[in-house]
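Example for reference:
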Amino acid sequence: MIDTKFVKGADGLTYNRAGYPISPKLSDERVGALAIFLALLFPLVVIWGKWESPLSMGLLRNTRLFEVARANHLLSQNQIDTADLFLTCLVLFVCFGVAYYLRKNLTKFSIVHPPPMPLKRLWLRQIILMLGIGLIFIFVPLAIGDLVYWGAPADLLGPKRSMFAVLILLSLGVYFTADAIGCASLYVCFYFKFWKAFE
């Protein structure tokens, strides 16, 4: 007999060996998996610098991190525009994942058969953890940009290896933060539709 770590229950949730539900994540769906792929692809495409972004949104251009990267010739304006486009697409994919997840999962439950109550506590902890990780991952590269802007050695952002690390932290930070906000919106829907009636 094969001993599996996780088991799919009749309610559509996944349970661990101890019988506790594993809180659903947007990354469990195909759209969420594509968002993870975008987050990991993001620094490679930006550093490669051969692809020209068709849009110039200017979202990142005014941050000190990207001002310093441009001033030290670590990134071109085209690479910054590419970073803008990729991060915007990443957030849009997560938003699309929320809508897809809601459509797929809200019909599994009802007032008579609500989602398991342990999921409520577990999911809330997961949302707080993902949000914390995401904000730390965003804060670190932005803080490094601020330090260099205010006179710290420019080597903190160079050579290309360091810039790659900064970009991967930024993209994963945006992914985790957007995923946490997406999961929080699902939690709110589940709470008002199912759990509030039992309080």
Summary: The chain has one domain: 28-190.
